[in-house]
Structures are given as C-alpha cells and as structure tokens.
Amino acid sequence: MTYLERAREKARALIEKGSATLLAVESSCDETAVAVVKDGRQVLANEISSQVDIHALYGGVVPEIASRMHVEALSPLYERALAASGLGARDIDAVAVTFGPGLVGALLTGVSFAKALAYGLDVPLVAVNHIEGHVSANFIAAPSLEPPFVCLVASGGHSHIVNVTRYGCYELLGRTADDAAGEAFDKVARVLEIPYPGGPLLDKLAETGDEKRYRFPRMHTEGKYDYSFSGLKTAVINQAHTIRQNGGEIEAADWAASFRRAVVDALLDKALLAARDTGAERFALAGGVASNRLLRRETLRRGTEMGLKVFMPPASLCTDNAAMIGAAGFYRLMNGELAGLDLNAQPSVRLIEE
Ligand code: KG4
Ligand code: ZN
To answer: Does the CB atom of residue 321 touch ligand 1 within 6 A?
Structure first.
C-alpha cells in the first residue's frame, strides 16, 4: 500500500469517529507557527515565532529572510508545540499545513516540513488555504458558531467578504481591487514614522486622537461589495506630504484616528451591506485587521443594531497563527480532502476558484 492509500484508510476511520487531533503548520508570511488542535475547536498548543523585529529593519517583509528564518524555527516550534500539548508524536492523527496564498519560499518551508512529518508519522496530510484559516479562527473562539455566516476577512494581504455556506464552502461576495486593508494601515503608518507593521501601533495611537480632525476621500469601487484602499492610501500620504512641504505639522494621533475611521467605515459599510443582502443571521470578523479596536467596537455596535449575531476571535487568533490552520484542516479532513506528498505551495491560490 502506498502512503496515500494508507492515509485514506486512516482518514476514513477518523471521519467515522468524527474526531481527530491535528498538528498544524503555518509559514505563509513572517510568522512561523505550529499548533495542536483537537476536533477543530480545542487548542492544545499554539506556538508562534515572529520575525517582525528583523523585517522592521527593512520596513517590510523580505521574502528570502522570511524563508530562512522559517527553516530555522520550524523544528524547535514543533518540539515546543508537542511538549505544550502534553501529547506524543504518535497521538497526532493528521498534519495540516498552509499551502497558499503567501510568499512562495516561505510557504515551501512549511509545506516541506508538513509533508515530511505526515510521511514520517504515516498520517493524513491536509492542505489549508490561509484565508480559510483566518475564517476558521472563529470556530475556536466560538464553540457554538456554525455555518452559514458572512465573514469579513481583513489582513495584510487580503480584504474579502465571504459567505461561509457550509464547512469548507465559500461564496466570495466581495474583495479588494488593489491594496488590502492591513497594507493600507502599514503604509500610512510609515508617514507617521511608525515602524513595520504599523497597523497595531497606529490603532493604539488612534485611541487618543480626534477622528474628525482630518477629512479623507471616500472609497469608489465598481462592485457593490468590493473594496479599493489604494486611492485612500495615496490621498492620505500625499496630503501629509503637502502639509509638511508647506511648513505645517501633522497631529499624529488625530491623523491616525481620522484614517482609521475612514478604513473601518469603508470595511463595515460594504461587509454589513453584503450580510444584509444575503439575509445572514451571523457575522464574523477575521484576519490581522480584525484585531483593530475600532473595527471590533463598530462591528459589535452596528452588527447588533442590525440584529446580527456578531463573532470575532481574540486578537491573538486574528493575526497569523497555526491554531486557525488546525481548525480549518479538521473540517477538510472530515470532508475527506487529503493532500498527497506532491503537494506544492500555491502563492496566489484563491479561496474560491473564480
Ligand atoms: O493576518 P495577518 O497577521 O497576516 C496576513 O495574512 O497578512 O495580518 C497582518 C496585518 C498587518 O498589515 C497589520 O498591520 C494588520 O494586520 N494589523 C492591524 C492591527 N493588528 C494587525 N491593522 C490595524 N489595526 C490593528 N490593531
Ligand atoms: Zn494572515
């Protein structure tokens, strides 16, 4: 019997039992992460090694450095995650790994590690889409949450509105035509000399600012539920340069607060419209930007006002982590969707093949 035949047999037994403990690996960008997750919802270990300090020196992620650092971090993180879970390698029923989207070299390190591990332990391998991982962080945070629900996924690389119709089934309602929301936060933060990744610090600074002080343009897009952050970002950056060239000064906290308000309103206007139009009863946030304080407050306020039940993972599960990959991987495994040892990184894979 080949590895894949044995894996299929093992997966069938796990599906019958309706239970599995997954070891999950995430390495799509600048966070190396390994987690152990039981039945898609119970996190037994969630280890992360961030490279942010190194990339901050360059003002953004340097792909080659990211790949090298993942390679160094993966084995120790695996050991740490197993130890923290209190389990042995033989207790792992399957391995889940992010295969895309992300940086190709970075993804390859995790995919190679996961393939070797699955083969070595002789257990099924599950390929997980990173965006699906972000959405699935909600399953960990809210044990009662089940599809269908509409989810706004806003991160450094993506801004999507998706309708989660069933576990593993997504209908793409809207997306950004250019920059992602997190990318816009990071680039505008640079104007305020906030180091990479600027989003979290800009958010903190905004808490003390006057959001009505500066006026930024509203977003224009073709699609009813689509975003475009590039125009807003450029307008904000240009406005800052003009003020400074004329000898003026920018009040950083007010600037941050006004910009944050513009992004959060734009994100929610469209996402909540999509939720209303699809008749959704539940609405969830996901992705790094979902840890934004104003976005969280406004989602709760506006969503609840509309009669939606609102979900959002804690900040630690919004930014990149492997627990969310373990959650998504469990439902893929339960659907019988296994990857072979020929699994490759797919840097531009979409959540939904359009
Ligand atoms: O999901 P994530 O960790 O990685 C990607 O898949 O991209 O998201 C990282 C992004 C960065 O752009 C970061 O600046 C942004 O999320 N971010 C925030 C906040 N925390 C993280 N943006 C705004 N406010 C925050 N509190
Ligand atoms: Zn991410």
So the answer is: no
Domain coordinates in residue numbering, the chain: 3-138+319-334, 145-313
312 vs 231: CA distance, rounded Å? 28
Q: Which residues surround ligand 2, an ion (CB under 5 A)?
A: 155, 320
Cβ of residue 102 lying under 6 Å from some atom of ligand 1: no
Which helix (H) or strand (E) covers residue 320, if one does? none
Cα separation of 351 and 336, whole Å?
A: 18
How many other β-carbons are positioned within 10 Å of the β-carbon of residue 13?
10
Q: Report DSSP state, residue 297.
A: H
Structure tokens at 197: 């990744």
CA 303 to CA 280: how far, in whole Å? Answer: 11
Pocket mutation for ligand 1, best pick of 131, 185, 207, 292 (most atoms within 8 Å of C-beta): 185
Instruction: Name the residue type at position 133.
Output: G
Checking if the pLDDT of 222 tops 90, the result is no
Q: pLDDT band for position 354 (50/70/90)?
A: very low
* Residue 39: strand, helix, or coil: coil
pLDDT single digits (tens) 169-187: 999 999 999 999 999 999 9
pLDDT per residue over 34-67, tens digit each?
999 999 999 999 999 988 889 989 888 899 999 9
Report pLDDT for 196. 86
Mutation probe of ligand 1 site: the residue of 52, 289, 318 with most atoms within 8 A of C-beta: 289
CA distance 329 to 132: 9
Fold designation for 145-313: Nucleotidyltransferase; domain 5 (3.30.420)
| Upstream peptide bond of 63 is cis (omega within 30 degrees of 0) | no
| Helix, strand, coil fractions of the chain, as percent rounded to 5 | 50, 20, 35
Spatial distance between the Cα atoms of 256 and 245, rounded to a whole number of angstroms: 19
Predicted model pTM: 0.96
CA atoms lying within 13 Å on the CB side of residue 168: 15
Q: What is the CATH number of domain 3-138+319-334?
A: 3.30.420.40
Distance between CA atoms of residues 130 and 286, nearest Å = 11
